[in-house]
Amino acid sequence: MKTRVLDRHGWLKPAPDVARAPSPNHDDRPKGLDATLLVMHNISLPPGQFGGTEVVDLFLNRLAYSTHPWLERLRGLRVSAHFFIRRNGLIVQLVPTTQRAWHAGVSSFDGCERCNDFSIGIELEGTDTLPYTDEQYRALQSLVPALRARHPIKAVRGHEHIAPGRKTDPGPAFDWKRFGRENGWFRRQLPPAQDSAQGRRT
After folding, report:
1. pLDDT of the residue at 194
2. Of 23, 84, 90, 200, which is most buried with the most CB atoms under 10 A?
3. Domain count, the chain
4. pLDDT tens-digit series, residues 138-173
5. Which CATH number goes with the domain that contains 178?
6. 156 found inside a domain
7. Longest dimension (CA), the chain
8. pLDDT digits over 72-102, tens only?
9. Residues annotated as part of the active site
10. Is residue 190 domain-resident?
11. Any domain includes 13
12. What's the start-to-end Cα distance of the chain, in Å?
């Protein structure tokens, strides 16, 4: 497995399977706060369509809304994530991990609100119900150790867990057991145990 490294500014070191697309949608974390939470998301634009430029364009504030009727509802939205992992495993970094990306919105974890303040956000190209690819899990397996080596990350949750009732991603298609096993998470660091990738709770 590839060993990835973050530089002192919080950017991944260059690699053939890493791209950099700096988003303007970020700011400083509150003084004294570091990333202690990893948040998993999914995204596809238009919904269910993969491989286009729309997701990165959204994060760079240059989305061409007129190319698809559904995109109009995103007009004026200013969002970002630290990383976007495509179906083929390409990692696109948009915000340095030392900065606050705008990915969680209204959210709460372990009694603390505003999860953007203390989290790193990873967007997977996908939907709640379509299985994620082996390439994406392998990309996570190479990325997560670098994040944990640099930041005191204590837990990982889905967007659905920190914004219940408002968000549903990464959804039942995300295999939390596989993710936990491949990345060395303790059970207590993961969302409540599930008996399969289909998301049935145990």
Report:
1. 53
2. 84
3. 1
4. 999 999 999 999 999 999 999 999 999 999 999 999
5. 3.40.80.10
6. yes
7. 45
8. 999 999 999 999 999 999 999 999 999 999 9
9. 123
10. no
11. no
12. 31
CA distance 104 to 29: 14
Give residue 182's identity as a one-letter amino acid code.
Answer: E
In a domain, 3, yes or no: no
Burial of 124 (0-12, 13-18, 19+ CB in 10 A): buried
Is the confidence at residue 199, as pLDDT, over 70?
A: no
Percent above pLDDT 90 for the chain: 93
Domain that holds residue 101: 18-185
pTM given for the model: 0.94
What is the gyration radius of the CA atoms in the chain, in angstroms? 16
H/E segment holding residue 34: none
Q: Which tokens belong to 74? A: 């995103």
Cis ω before 16 (30° cut-off from 0): no
What does the buried/exposed string (b/e) look like for 76-100 if buried means 16 or more CB atoms within 10 Å of the residue's CB? eeebbbbbbbbbebbbbbbbbbbbb
